């Protein structure tokens, strides 16, 4: 046995787990749909490790994500649809096609004479053009099944997390000039949507009358994503950072109160605010990068 396992070892492990006679009962029960939540979770764990700077554990998290790909490939192989080699082959071919500035002859062995003068924006323009050509070659005409006209918003994945989809929608619209002229106007729009949300809340008849509030809150969040784009910040990443910051501060507050023998539940809001500010100050002193 080699001193370090490789991809073939991982594929063999997957074969063992899915063996109908001696495989793992849990793994044998899974199908494409049942694995999806695990894939999403593993993707976010990779992102979390990177954002926390926990590079020591990043290989472990990347391995968990790779295992998801191996699992899907095994299911495809069992059904005679595709296998892991097909996955590798297709992504390699696609990346060669979409990087003609690196692989001018369309082969992995080809080399460019030079890439001087080419910018990342040029790369993205080529990427979108080639991607559209691929879709047309597959017979996937823009506009969809309802014979709708082609749109800049075609091929945006429907199931993206809401913040990510909002950012993609905005970027596509901005490509044709449908965008705010400057950051100041986005701040003004954010304030406007905040006022409209407050007005909708004030107009609620009862606690079930939330339709208008939900609509205005969605508009506020959409503009917040737009603002993040103008500021050069990823909204999803910013919110995850705030989540970590809140969790760190709240846990510190719980620890402080427990050490003093004080119950958190039942405290008046004014006292809770004092506890929170104290915990916030101490926690941020320990972890200033998220302060």
Automatic annotation (TrEMBL):
NTP pyrophosphohydrolase MazG-like domain boundaries: 30-103, 188-249
Annotated Gene3D superfamilies: MazG-like
Classification via CDD domains: NTP-PPase_MazG_Cterm, NTP-PPase_MazG_Nterm
EC numbers for this chain: 3.6.1.8
Pfam families: MazG
NCBIfam families: mazG, PRK09562.1
Protein name: Nucleoside triphosphate pyrophosphohydrolase
Provenance organism: Halospina denitrificans
